[in-house]
Amino acid sequence: MVKSNRIRLLRILVPLVASIPLAWSLSTTWIGELVLSMFRPVVDTTDPLPLMLLLTGTLSIIGSLAVESVFKLVLAQLLLFMIPTLWGTPLSALKGYTLGGILFSILLILAYYLEPYSGGGSFTGDDDSLIAPTLTILALPIVAGTGFLILILYWSDLGSRPPNLLPLWILLPLLVGIAALISAGYAMKRAKNTGEEVLNRLILRTVMTAGDTFRVEPLAMDGRSVSLALQGGSPVRRPLLLTLDLEYAPTFVMLRSPWESRMLTKKYEWVENGVRYVVYSDTTSRASSSQDIPSALQ
Amino acid sequence: MRALNLLIYATLLPFAAALLTGIPGFAYMSLIPAAVLSYGILTDPPSGISGEKTVERTKLGVGESTRVRVSLRIEEGAGIVQVSDVIPPGFEITRGSNRRIFFKRPEKPLEVVYEYEIRALKRGRHVLSPVEVIGVDPLRVGMRSYAILGNEIDIEVAPSFVPVKRLVTRKLRTREGRPSSHLSRMGPVSTDFREIREYHPGDPLRVINWKATARLNEPLVNEYEPEGRARVMIYLDTTENMGVGTAVNGGLESAVGLTLSIIAFLLKSDFRVGLYLVGSRRFETPRTGIQALSTFAKLLLHAGPSISGESFPLAVERSRALLEGGSTVSLFVTNLTPYTVDEISRAVERAARFTGKGTIVVDVNPYHQIDGIVGSLTALQKRALAEKLGVPVVHWNPAGESLPAGVKKVLWVMLNGKI
What we know:
The structure holds 2 protein chains of 2 kinds. Chain A is of the alpha/beta class. Chain A is built from 7 helices and 7 strands, in the order αααααααβββββββ. Chain A has a 7-stranded mixed β-sheet, with no helix packed on it. By secondary structure, chain B is an alpha/beta fold. Chain B has 4 domains: 3-42; 47-158, Sandwich (Immunoglobulin-like); 164-182 and 228-415, Rossmann fold (3-Layer(aba) Sandwich), CATH 3.40.50.410; 189-226, no CATH class. Chain B has helices spanning 3-21, 31-42, 164-167, 170-176, 210-216, 251-268, 293-301, 312-318, 320-323, 341-355, 372-389, 403-415, and strands spanning 47-55, 59-61, 65-76, 79-84, 91-95, 100-104, 110-120, 124-128, 131-136, 144-149, 153-158, 189-198, 220-226, 231-237, 272-278, 282-287, 328-334, 359-364, 393-396. Chain B has a 6-stranded mixed β-sheet with strand order 16-15-14-17-18-19, with helices on both faces. Chain B starts with a helix and ends with a helix.
């Protein structure tokens, strides 16, 4: 089986699996009774669950073929699964809803990562070559989380023993551990980004009306700003990605073409091999407090 | 929905669901999203990025293609790698893509090499941007890395023109002898000896023929042929008036091709040719020899619709020194409109005063490229306007007539003795 077929199969399988807890949930309501009464002349059974499984399974397959977004389909299934609980739940159904909810929490995440990745533009690449390794990486936290869940589920008897539902003696050390790991991760990244910079490389990104064959000519440079003229060419609205080496990183860069001027502000910076890279992009606000928001890559 | 938002909601909302429904087990739904979120935050996006971009040829002609090759190596981290660069508007991608996406696995470095082909649509010095690499963490929770590889690469696209061989038809060849009768009576002298004559006050000492002077005992000087043939001064309109149509296929592009083709022919035919870019305030003094073609091509490389308000009469005034002192023909290449006709008329009068020779106006009609009906209507209007000028006007429709046809029309008027 080729990779693309595997992903396609997963896109059908995930809603199909989600239809199992959904079928169980609906079979405990009047819908289950209704379906049973409709099929009683054909099928001789008193349990609506098999009929509901058949019905929701078929609908989920049709849905996954008809609806483009698996995530939206699974989200709709989750909402349908939870709706009956709003009118009260018998104690006997607690275990079922707990297990169903956990299953949905996994399926929802899987469905999200099965969606094609857009990346904020049209990129050429094998979509499935992105999804398959993402799912492999996703397996690790899911397995780790499931392992921890098994412990809690065992302790709380599948969520039916209220006094043991939230074992703080497990949860608290776990939360502290996670917090420590996250802060350590940030600290390491911060340490990586520091260094002795000797040159500033300014990266200018924008979309503006400028000449199609412009020349860059410096107009004015002071400690705070740099003004560059884009001279020549025929006017055309175009993306610009320019680099400029300077001894300092100004607060903003002004790009002036004969047809439009743009003020670019500092958005993102890092240091690598003694070079400080500073990304400048369009400003949405002139407030000084908004100049360091690292949103250039959004 | 962004992954970070989804995972935060999926971590927090189950607690609300547990409270709302009275099913405490729903709170357990938050554990796996929380685990995924923590793992996503801790995973480094792709980093340690190195690579280069190379271009097969950096000097092209319009319509020619070149291959761009990008090689990339990513050492650390894991996740999605988006690679892209900015193709200048004067190029189109004919094969492959410049926007690629890859996945960097955690266990081994990612090495990628890809190529794409671009075709030059327009003359000029185009800048191919550096390669931009954006690394996104594998679970897309918002950890990103950014790298820029290489520098800008300049690609020079020479303007297209009609080779002289294609222009020299039998009809034109019979007229080709005519330029020899356009010899200058004034202007700089060449090294071609004509005769020995008597000395006139003001003759430079270096032209005195000392041997002949000693022999005949009276001052005699060598006289040389005036240099070259008739001069042609071309005024190309590079104001916004020519910015009709697209940047790639507009009035100015057609006019540049026409002008360069005419220059090539005239240089080949031993004319002295000068060029003034009206609006851009740039010019090239009259030159001879086909070798000078590259100088003109270089000047035309950057010619774009300029927003400076230089008018034709002002351009003629500024180039007065180039027009005077020789047998000069002026050629105005423009887009004749009701707004410019008076200006052209004044420029024609002024040029005639300086040169004493004729003037030709070449009217490039770019409106056919926008719409056929608009083009036809403007053509009628342009003919009416041309009559006001009182000089030969060559109308050229780049959408309906080929470049060689346009050049031949102009040369025919020039060499047919209408000027």
